[in-house]
Design a protein that fits this description.
The chain is mainly alpha-helical. It has 8 helices and no strands. The longest helix is centred in the N-terminal third of the chain and has 26 residues. The chain starts with 14 loop residues before the first helix and ends in an 8-residue tail after the last helix. 33% of the residues are buried. The model has no long low-confidence stretch (mean pLDDT 86).
Amino acid sequence: MGMQPPRRPRHRGSLKTALFGNIFDRNLPGRAHNYLLQCGLASLSLFLILLVEDIVIGVAIVVAVASTAFTIFVYPDSIASTPRRVIGGHMVAVLSGATMAGMLLIPFMSSTAQDARIVVDIAAALPVGIGALLMVMTNTEHPPAAGTAFALVIDPWSWSAILFVLSGAIALSAVRIILRPRLINLL
């Protein structure tokens, strides 16, 4: 008796379903109010943070905080949505991004960066990897925070950007804590 080849799984449904799946979440009819409420809260929270901060900051920094709002309000049960991960992840990202941005301000590095774009590219990529490593080591993994580390190098560095990120992370975490009993995973 020899070994039989593995069985191929049988596909159920049409080719259209196999290629595209269901376009709409099958839970949508029963959870439409949650979908509207939580996605609306993500927008409202980000709007209020932007309104309170009322500073001109780089687009990449705003995108990092907006990604955090998405994570918290769309997938609130995710470990990446916990305050430790949100605040800690952005703190680690600020540390790695600001350190690299500071290194680019050193006269030798600054002149080298102006002459060779690759130096800026390396300087922008490194804090993402270093930040990810530090987040994993400290149990503060928060994927949107990678955008913070990147943005602090790509956008003009400022204390207001750091304040925006950290206050945004704290505010979004506070909203999650307060509304947690009413939030459901939309994924």
